[in-house]
Write a structure and sequence with these properties.
binds pyridoxal-5'-phosphate, 20 strands, seven-stranded mixed beta sheet, single chain
């Protein structure tokens, strides 16, 4: 019997969707927000974008539709089903993206001035959460695969060192899996972190599907994390901007978590978004094992086929020997195109404009494709055909030189929050040695910041940045992308 057939019958329900259906069936005359009044006043140019039923369901704040901020009815029932499915004590629906889930997670875990251990390649939402909370980040450098030019996970040794050197830290936040699908040994990390009485928070933006295939890395809740922020919208079936925050109680204060979620979420949640989260949970509960299982198989087959194309390489389990790579999400296909003498962005342009293939992202050496439950043999064949033709047209070239070693993480003079609220000025970048940075500067690859707000700029960092600019690497973060000037804290 398929595992999907063994699911708890309670999971067949979709409480938010059902409450919405009941509300519109009741036919109450709308003297309430939103102003378009269930579609009647929607601008003509938008009318056929959302179905008539969808527009009628765009309502909010009715008593029978519950309250996202203090749920007791359909939202509570839907969240409880999600928690049961993911093996969490509680699940919270988030309609402001995983960004909001991560911000709430950090705000719930650390007080101003307290330390939180985070990977240096933290997504901007983590840096944002640290700025909002006033916490002190302790950055840990992730492992870097020099050949591919991408950041992997954190090694156990790097986490152990950070824990020993920061016994006063309150929490450790890890990205698991990474954008490229690389997972760390989360279970071991959870044991180490909890042994020091710290909290384990997981940015699981790229992992809401992990639970549904034994071939995928362990999910955060199964590994023993305290909190995990998942982008339901990125990987499974809900609408963009919808995420979940999974919680295991014991070390986390539920009341504080709820308060922090309220702080970063709208008081007028969009019910289509909430219902889509409810439906995505229903889909995973009823068909998750088969849908995700199929996506994994399709991706594995595609990976094998891509690796037969001369000049292309799609890494797989062969890359798992490195310290920061314990397991792999096979549905992420990172295709290294440097063997064709192309950069990732060049290959992205060719695929988009000559073959109508849109990737998820590209970096200097690679193009990342996401395969999901929505894909079939047809899409896989289209991608494979396009890659084959592109490779045939290019021929083989020498791969690009590996990236230069990153400069050391600089000393932190101000907390990121203090730097954010400081008076700043533009400074000649070449002469900025000793100044305090007021912006993030990251080069791709490997997408790891060389400077974060509050850190002291060093000669080594200036030299590295100028060298990276000379070889044409893309810089992200500074207001002046030419890096003639840098925003620094006025002293
Ligand atoms: C690793 C990681 N964390 C967090 C986020 C933020 O998620 P969202 O776009 O849902 O706010 C992203 C988005 O790309 C991400 O890649």
């Amino acid at each position: 019997m398929d595992k999907d057939d063994q699911i708890d019958s309670a999971q067949q329900a979709a409480p938010i969707l059902e409450a919405l259906r009941a509300y519109i069936a009741d036919g109450a005359v709308a003297f309430h927000t939103p102003g378009h009044k269930q579609g009647k006043g929607i601008p003509e140019i938008f009318r056929d974008i959302v179905t008539t039923t969808g527009l009628r369901m765009d309502v909010s704040l009715m008593e029978e539709l519950d309250d996202l901020h203090e749920p007791t009815m359909c939202i509570k029932a839907a969240q409880d089903l999600a928690a049961a499915l993911y093996g969490a004590d509680a699940a919270y629906f988030v309609i402001n993206g995983t960004t909001a889930a991560i911000q709430a997670m950090i705000l719930a875990a650390v007080n101003p001035g307290e330390k939180i251990i985070v990977p240096r390649n933290a997504h901007r939402s983590i840096i944002g959460g640290i700025m909002l909370s006033g916490a002190q980040p302790v950055f840990v450098q992730p492992e870097i695969d020099q050949e591919l030019g991408i950041a992997m996970g954190l090694s156990i040794e790097a986490i152990q060192r950070a824990l020993e050197e920061n016994l006063d830290a309150k929490a450790v936040l890890v990205i698991n899996p990474t954008y490229y699908g690389v997972a760390s040994d989360l279970k071991t990390i959870a044991g180490l972190v909890h042994a020091k009485n710290m909290l384990l928070l997981v940015d699981e933006a790229h992992g809401p599907h992990l639970k549904f295939s034994p071939e995928l890395p362990l999910s955060a809740m199964d590994a023993g994390a305290d909190l995990a922020a998942q982008s339901t919208h990125k990987i499974i079936g809900s609408l963009t901007q919808t995420s979940m925050l999974q919680a295991r109680y014991g070390r986390i204060d539920p009341e504080r978590l709820r308060m922090m979620l309220s702080l970063v979420q709208s008081t007028s949640p969009n019910y289509l978004l909430l219902a889509s989260l409810d439906a995505a949970r229903w889909q995973m509960a009823t068909q998750g094992q088969s849908l995700i299982g199929k996506a994994v198989q399709l991706a594995q087959k595609l990976r094998q086929a891509i690796n037969t194309i001369g000049g292309l390489y799609c890494f797989g389990e062969d890359r798992l020997q490195s310290a920061g790579a314990f397991a792999l999400d096979a549905t992420k296909l990172t295709v290294t195109v440097s063997g064709l003498g192309l950069t990732g962005p060049e290959a992205e342009q060719i695929l988009r404009h000559e073959y109508k293939i849109q990737c998820e992202l590209s970096d200097r050496n690679n193009v990342l494709f996401i395969l999901s439950l929505a894909d079939t043999e047809k899409e896989a064949a289209l991608l494979l055909g396009a890659l084959r033709q592109m490779a045939a047209q290019r021929g083989k070239h020498a791969p690009l030189a590996p990236a230069r070693a990153l400069p050391a993480i600089p000393r932190q003079r101000l907390l990121p929050r203090a730097a954010l609220f400081s008076e700043t000025e533009k400074h000649d970048f070449r002469q900025s040695d000793g100044c305090i940075a007021a912006e993030v500067i990251t080069f791709y690859p490997p997408g790891i910041p060389i400077l974060c707000p509050g850190e002291i700029i060093t000669r080594e960092i200036i030299g590295y940045a100028l060298a990276m600019q000379q070889v044409g690497l893309k810089v992200v973060g500074p207001a002046d992308a030419s890096l003639n000037t840098i925003k620094v804290v006025k002293q």
